[in-house]
Automatic annotation (TrEMBL):
Name recorded for this polypeptide: Aminotransferase
Residues spanning the signal sequence: none
One GO MF term attached to the UniProt entry: L-aspartate:2-oxoglutarate aminotransferase activity
Transmembrane region(s): none
Class of this enzyme: transferase
SUPFAM superfamilies listed in its UniProt record: PLP-dependent transferases
Organism ancestry: Bacteria, Bacillati, Bacillota, Bacilli, Lactobacillales
EC number, UniProt record: 2.6.1.-
Essential cofactor(s): pyridoxal 5'-phosphate
Pfam families: Aminotran_1_2 (PF00155)
Family: Belongs to the class-I pyridoxal-phosphate-dependent aminotransferase family.
Keyword Ion transport: no
Keywords: Aminotransferase, Pyridoxal phosphate, Transferase
Segments forming domain Aminotransferase class I/classII large: 37-378
Length: 399
């Protein structure tokens, strides 16, 4: 096995060297080998990809659709994305000039940030937030500005945004908004989004709207800020969560043509083009599978209500999520508030895998994130294990 020449050991991208791996993946890997562990760690839908979607991928392979795709994605898929956005959210995007298909929403974020940022540019990130935003901003040469929303029920308020923009000055290039939010499950109302749009509209900045969970909401209608300030919005979405297609790796950017021109250039440098069978499957999902997420949401809501009820009885404070398939639960008083320590003990002694809240930035410490996208059987086992774990810890502390 080759060993790196010692003279090359520090010849790396210093921005990349300054950040650690994803806190989500790192903790998941840390606990995965524990015998008997019930994992509620990753954002993996607990459903199979719909049959008609799988068949579209198979048919693509049978038809020898094995050559390079158009770099921005097949015309069929871009047309399907445009139609989906119009049908579901009344958004108008030209499939030829304003949409680019990416390798999942993560690449959409990376390509957008790399196309946007220059050294010294700042990006506002309301936290707790998806763990990849800060690393992606940093590697792209920008400076993340993390804004703790925990005291505002995990919602970025117009007042907080206005104050942050005033403090950070003209170096702010963009704001990232995730809704429904990972890890909290909080969804913005139309009025809340309009309040933020009104503030953003006063500044020459972008808003990157990460709406990957837009189809997974409960009792609330999803609205896109792109309907309010389309000229400033970079819309990121994909098929991973809505259609249980995480492994297909299909996401997309929808934005004004002038921005898409550069984002598509960055996308082409990064990956050349998406996979044809995956694009065929995504086209089918967005054309004939608009009701597929609704069926999944029925079970997700049942699972959400069951887990929240169990956690409430165990002393955890929760904000019932209006979207996604996560619960962000506050560790009860009397237990360690160090979320890594708590989650590690829960995995080792309680055989339940969750993600420490600290992985999601300021405002996350003292919380844990649980995914309720697991099977009903796993959720019941996890809650039974947690009940035993909490009881044992309480009994031990009282001795």
């Amino acid at each position: 096995m080759p060993k790196l020449n010692t003279a090359l050991s520090d010849q790396v991208n210093q921005r990349l060297d300054s950040i650690g791996p994803s806190g989500i993946r790192a903790f998941d890997q840390k606990v995965t080998g524990i015998p008997g562990l019930v994992k509620l760690t990753l954002g993996e839908p607990g459903f199979n990809t719909p049959e008609h979607v799988k068949e579209a991928a198979v048919e693509s392979i049978r038809n020898n659709d094995s050559h390079y795709s158009a770099q921005k994605g097949t015309p069929a898929l871009r047309n399907a994305i445009s139609g989906f956005l119009k049908t579901r959210y009344n958004l108008d995007y030209d499939p030829k000039a304003e949409i680019v298909t990416t390798i999942g929403a993560t690449e959409a974020l990376a390509a957008s940030l790399m196309a946007m940022l220059n050294p010294g540019d700042k990006v506002i990130v309301p936290t707790p937030a998806f763990a990849l935003y800060v690393p992606l901003i940093t590697v792209a040469g920008g400076t993340p500005v993390e804004v703790d929303t925990s005291k505002d029920n995990f919602v970025l308020t117009p007042q907080r945004l206005k104050g942050t923009l005033a403090k950070e000055g003209d170096a702010v290039k963009a704001v990232i908004l995730t809704y429904p939010n990972n890890p909290t499950g909080v969804e913005y109302t139309e009025a809340e989004l309009q309040g933020l749009a009104d503030v953003i509209a006063t500044k020459p900045i972008f808003v990157i709207a990460d709406e990957i969970y837009s189809e997974l909401t409960y009792g609330i209608t999803h609205h896109s800020i792109a309907a309010m300030i389309p000229e400033q919005t970079i819309l990121v979405n994909g098929l991973s969560k809505s259609h249980a297609m995480t492994g297909y790796r299909i996401g997309y950017i929808a934005a004004p043509a002038d921005f898409v021109k550069n984002a598509a250039k960055m996308h082409a440098f990064l990956v050349t083009a998406p996979s044809n069978p995956a694009q065929a499957a995504a086209t089918e999902a967005l054309t004939n599978g608009l009701d597929d997420p609704k069926k999944m949401c029925v079970q997700y809501k049942k699972s959400r209500d069951y887990v929240i009820d169990c956690l409430d009885k165990l002393g955890f404070e929760t904000v019932p999520p209006k979207g996604t398939f996560y619960i962000f639960a506050k560790i009860p008083a009397g237990f360690t508030q160090n979320s890594v320590d708590f989650a590690t003990e829960l995995a080792q002694d309680g055989k339940v895998g969750v993600i420490p809240g600290s992985a999601f930035g300021p405002g996350g410490e003292g919380y844990i994130r649980l995914s309720y996208a697991a099977s009903v059987e796993d959720l019941h086992a996890a809650m039974t294990n947690m009940k035993g774990f909490m009881a044992a810890k309480t009994a031990s502390a009282s001795k």
